[in-house]
Amino acid sequence: METFLQQVVSGLAAGGIYAAFALALVMTYLATNAVNFAQGEMAMFSTFVASALIESGMPYWAAFFVTLAIAFLGGVAIERAILRPLERAPVLALTIVTIGLLTIFNSMAGWIFGYTIRTFPSPFPPSPVRLGGIVVSRHSLGSLGVTLALLALLYVFFRYTHLGLAMRAAARYPVGSRLVGIRVGWMLALGWGLAAAIGAVAGILIAPVLFLEPNMMGGILIYAFAAATLGGFTSPVGAVIGGFLVGIIENLAGTYIRFIGADLKLTVALGIIVLVLIFKPSGLFGQPHAQQL
Amino acid sequence: MDAPRIEWVTTDRRPAASVQIWKAAAAVGLVALACALPFLSSDYALFQYCQVYSYAIALLGLNVLTGYNGQISLGHGAFYAVGGYTTAILMERAGVAYGWTLPISGVLCFVVGFLFGLPALRIAGTYLALATFALALSVPQILKHFDSWTGGTQGMVVAKPEAPRLLHLNSDQWLYFLTFAILLLLMILAWNLLRGRIGRAIVAIRDNPVASQAMGVHNALYKSLCFGLSASYTGIAGSLAALSVGFVSPDSFTALLSITLLVGVVVGGLASISGAILGAIFVQFMPSAAHELSKAAPWAIYGASLILCMYVMPGGAAGLLQRLWQRAARRLR
Amino acid sequence: MSDLLEIVGLEAFYGRTKALHGLDLAVREGGITALLGANGAGKSTLLRAVCGMVSLRGEIRFGGRSIAGKSTEVIARQGVAHVPEGRATFASMTVEENLRLGAHPRKDRSKLGDDFERVYAVFPALAQRRRQAAGTLSGGEQQMLAVARALLLPPRLLLLDEPSLGVAPRVVTEIFQVVKQINQQEGVSVLLVEQNARRAFELAESAYVLETGRVVASGPSAMLQQDDSIRRAYLGY
Predict the structure, then answer these.
(1) Domain ranges of chain C
(2) What percent of chain C has pLDDT over 70?
(3) Residue B3: closest CA among chain C residues belongs to which residue?
(4) Are C144 and C150 in contact (CB under 8 A)?
(5) Which of A137, B98, B255, C41 could link B136 by a cystine bridge, Cβ 3.0 to 4.6 Å?
(6) How confident is the model at residue B99 (pLDDT cuts 50, 70, 90)?
(7) Mean pLDDT of chain C
(8) What is residue B7's predicted lDDT score, i.e. its pLDDT?
(9) What CATH number does the domain containing A65 carry?
(10) CA A246 to chain centre
(11) Torsion sign (Cα): A276, A282, A285, A286
């Protein structure tokens, strides 16, 4: 029983990170109706920037927020410069462009920062917390806290501020929004900026665990995709819940289904994605997408 | 305010007769050149050309699915892997002659592709890209897991085929001709398929699935068949590549391979048969050239080419050539 | 009285199809002008062209400044409020959120509360449903919402596309009364597209009659109403 609870808790801990990532994916999807395949590499690149800032002497939290700002601006710039000309192109074109961005960010990180693996500091003390017989690292708890705080902030922003309202309208009703004078293009760019910043947070939270190197996000990406798919690409809350569920499912499947063991965990994520897309494509919390004729 | 219009190359644009004659002449010339190459090039160069032909076959396959049928796949590396490992396993563990592994690989991949195409019927667009990308990401792990079959992380050696004694060729030359012949055969097969009724149905499904269904096209069947055909081409390509390289290992089949195939199809030309060869040349030779600049350059260039192609050349190199041909043909009349 | 909206030689295109063939039209400052004609005459296309929603050639001047070729949101920010056919309300958002978004471009938000109250006063049905999702409103209520939202811009020119379509006659009367009120009290100019010519003449003092993308008749309402041939040929009665 203890093993079960421990696995659930560990799953939640890992899930917290998938959740942060899935949140970034959902944000870009809401803004531009495209899955940003480059989200992981952008997050990794931002984390390298943070690492460089910290190594140059900046205190952790200062570097954290400066990196967020840089990531935000970067996201806005990418949407305006690279995606905007393709506003009316088919989804296939946008998808291909995000894949192009994936490889560009990956190679630029390698070129600028090198391929050697680095450590990345955690702002939380290293000693683990013991609840009963269950062990959880403070970093995991802290990451969970940050993710939930982020979700709460986003919720407040989108529900209670005028800018959040305008962004929601721009994403869902671009034509009507233009008629009331909303600069839809800039709203989408802001959405990308936000997503990039969230991705940076996810990267900064994951780096202490996975160690920082250009190919760091390779393994995580599929879990984040599974989380966003499970929760629903149109629901930020769904993304977070999806993240936790994926973390738990992955851990439990790895522990209890011997066939899967430690090796085939990625296949679990693949399985989740395929099953959800076949049976409930809008995910647990997402809104069904009507096909435009 | 107006975004640039992206016009996808379709099969129903018929060039003028003079253009077609020049094209045929050029094709014959190229085939002749290709046949002469083995006697003029080093073994290493032949190996590279073999890789180009293998990629071209894989790109043909991916193009049928993505370019003509509109189902985006970021997971074709998986079929390349199935082909390569099928050949390796049949040869090393079951003692099957290399020649037989090719059709077996083709049929097996067709079935796997068709089966994958079934759930894919319910998934479209970006979500299909996502699901196939997830497949691509899982492949190395799956290959490492079933190590009693696949040799695990170490991979498997594939014996290099010997040329039949009648022809006085070395292995590399023989493999070159074999791969080239299969490429020509598969190209002609694809070309024939695509310009007929089936081809039109496939493109109709891409352009307007509701209308095509209303016109009596059995969408589900055609889409799954496309997946199967596409997978079988890519599988055969994987088998040929395995024979040429002499080795398969899980790390040769990462998600990056699937991205490479996508780059090849986009740069070469979506919905174009000649584009497969152009794309394959780009994908084989660009990285070694770019590597001179820096270790990171090849992937940066891949990414940049994908993006540039979406803006400037949605028809890829093949689309560009098509336009140049027509301009030249007009001047020659 | 100068013209708030001047259109000269307007051609509009859907892809390669030409929908408007060199139209000339003007809306007097503070006036209400109707656009009449059968289905497919190009009335909605004209409104869309004014808002930069279709490709066009020709001149469009608003308040003396050219707006041809500008983007929809820029034109809206200059004070052109367009209530399109189909209303384009934000269905999943509440009535209140819709109205809030209507006032989006305002730099000075101090009078927003007062303006909200005024809108609720003239459309009491909206006041009752202010926290309801717009998509759950009846056809007439959605039309009221669309007009109310447009009024919050605040508009100098109000473009109304078929406001009576799918709306109960009583509600149409209510909406028309509101439009007349803001026209008289605040000098908001109105360009009204209507298939129901009789209703249009209740409101508009001048009108243009369109057929297949061309103006075939224009002038003061009284004159058009008295011309039997025009009435029978184009206005359906």
Answers:
(1) 3-90+155-235
(2) 98
(3) C55
(4) no
(5) B255
(6) confident
(7) 90
(8) 45
(9) 1.10.3470
(10) 13
(11) positive
- Residue B152: alpha-carbon gap to chain centroid: 26
Helices (H), chain A: 2-32, 39-55, 60-78, 91-113, 138-160, 162-172, 174-179, 184-210, 218-231, 236-256, 265-279
Start-end of H helices in A161-183:
162-172, 174-179
Inter-helix orientation angle A265-279/B98-120, to 10°: 50
| pLDDT mean over C121-128 | 92
Q: How many domains does chain A have?
A: 1
Give CA separation, C205 vs C30, C33, C191, C202, in Å.
11, 6, 11, 8
State how far residue A166 is from chain C, nearest Cα, in angstroms: 7
Does residue B216 have a pLDDT over 80?
Answer: no
pLDDT of residue A164: 92
Interface residue of C72, C80, C100, C147 to substitute, partner A, most A CBs within 10 Å: C72
Residue among C61, A219, C218, A105 at smallest CA distance from B302: A105
Q: Kindly indicate the confidence band of residue B2, based on its pLDDT and cuts at 50, 70 and 90.
A: very low
Number of neighbours of residue B48 by Cβ within 10 angstroms: 17
pTM above 0.90, yes or no: no
Do C71 and B1 count as a contact with CB atoms less than 8 A apart? yes
- Token pair belonging to A13: 């801990």
Neighbours of chain A (3+ CB pairs under 8 A): B, C
Of the candidates B119, B115, B131, B137, the one whose C-alpha atom is nearest the C-alpha of residue B72 is B131
Residue A84 in contact with partner chain C when CB distance is under 8 A: no
What residues contact residue C15 under an 8 Å CB cut-off, 6+ apart?
none
Test C69 with B2 for CB contact under 8 angstroms. no
Residue B234 has pLDDT above 90, yes or no: yes
pLDDT at B318 over 90: no
Which has the higher per-residue pLDDT, A281 or C152?
A: C152
Residue of B nearest to A266 (CA): B138
Count CB-CB contacts under 10 A for residue A267: 21
Q: Which domain holds residue A209?
A: 2-279
Closest CA of chain B from A265, distance in Å: 8
Residues of C in contact with A183 (CB under 8 A): 73
User: Can you tell me the distance from the alpha carbon of A249 to that of C157, in angstroms, rounded to the nearest whole number?
Assistant: 58
Residues from chain A that touch B311, judged by Cβ atoms under 8 A, are 85-86
Of the pLDDT bands very low, low, confident and very high (cuts 50, 70, 90), residue C1 is: low
Model confidence pLDDT, tens digit, residues B262-278? 999 988 887 778 889 98
For chain B, the residues whose C-beta falls within 8 A of a C-beta of chain C are: 1-2
pLDDT in tens, B62-87: 998 888 888 889 999 999 999 999 99
**CA atoms of B46 and B38, how far apart (whole Å):** 7
Q: Which residues on B lie below 8 Å from C69 (Cβ)?
A: 1
Distance from the Cα of A151 to chain B's closest Cα (Å) equals 24
Give tens-digit pLDDT for B244-303. Answer: 999 999 988 988 899 999 999 988 887 778 889 989 999 998 888 888 877 778 888 889
C88 touches chain A (CB under 8 A): yes
Closest listed residue to residue C123, CA positions, set C175, C198, C66: C175
pLDDT at A138 over 60: yes
The verdict on residue A292 lying in a domain is no
| Within-domain flag for A284 | no
Query: What are the chain A neighbours of C84 within 8 Å (beta carbons)?
Result: 179
ipTM: 0.91
Choose the closest CB to B134 out of A90, A95, A273.
A273
User: Confidence class of residue B14 from pLDDT cuts 50, 70 and 90?
Assistant: low
CATH topology for C3-90+155-235 is Rossmann fold (3.40.50)
| Residue C71 with chain A: CB contacts under 8 Å | 178
Say if A293 falls within a structural domain: no
Note whether C52 contacts B2, CB cutoff 8 Å.
Answer: no
